Amino acid sequence: MASVTARGMTLYILALLNFVFVFITGADFVRFISFRAIYHNITGESQLCQDSVPWSVALRDSSVLKSVVVDLGLLALFTVQHSLLAWAPVKQACQSVLGVLNRAMYCSTTALALQILMHYWQPVTDAPCLWSVRNAPWNTWFPLLCFTLHFLCWSIICSILLIFDYPELLGIKQVYYECLGLGDPLALKSPRAQRLFAHLRHPVCVELAVVLWLLPALPLDRLLLAGSLSAYLALAHSLDTQDCAYLSVQLHSKLRLFSLPQDVTAQNNDNHKQE
């Protein structure tokens, strides 16, 4: 029993360390995606782009080309890590070695890849912006609008992550169930729910697309970032009519809870948990 308890404590500590690392990385990613892009003047950074330089000159500039190559390499690193570890043969191999820590390992390596991308990202400041809002009064109101919508989108993203069982997404629930002898929490879900999770790998595509593209100015490096991540998000899931029908049923069941008596609502909640 002592050895089992020691093993359980070790698993809990590793899962919690993963949670802290992923949480910190998520906060850094919000700063990287939204704060730096909208409030670069507050951070003391230099100008995001040089509109006085024509594209024909900028694309022959060695510093611009070097930054583009570095940024594309960082995006390739993140894409390969995120896709390779989700590939079924690699996932099964990691599962056989790591067991219940497999999901936590996937989240930790994803966070590490994001940290590397954010730390070594090269802003392209010697090329023109694809667009830049500078004329009054839009140079004041449009950044404020961007901030409001970014804040709203990040709030929605956090809410959706909580709805989609945040402890399970980070691998904490797997460790908890293992220590209690309950098995894999995903295996306890209905077949339709398992099918949905297999197809819907990123449930916040629309919100992420908004924060990637809605900016007061769009420099070349941001175009690379937004374009690459948007394409990856669009290709990373494969929802079909069965998944959409299941989501529709779940949505209607949630809406019905507001119009049912309390005792019937409690019974429906129990049925939903079984589902």
UniProtKB/TrEMBL annotation:
It comes from the Eukaryota. GO terms for cellular component: nuclear inner membrane. It is found in: Nucleus inner membrane. Signal peptide: none annotated. The chain crosses the membrane at residues 12-33, 68-88, 100-121, 141-164. It is a multi-pass membrane protein. The keyword Transmembrane helix applies. Keywords: Membrane, Transmembrane, Transmembrane helix. Belongs to the nurim family. This is Nurim.
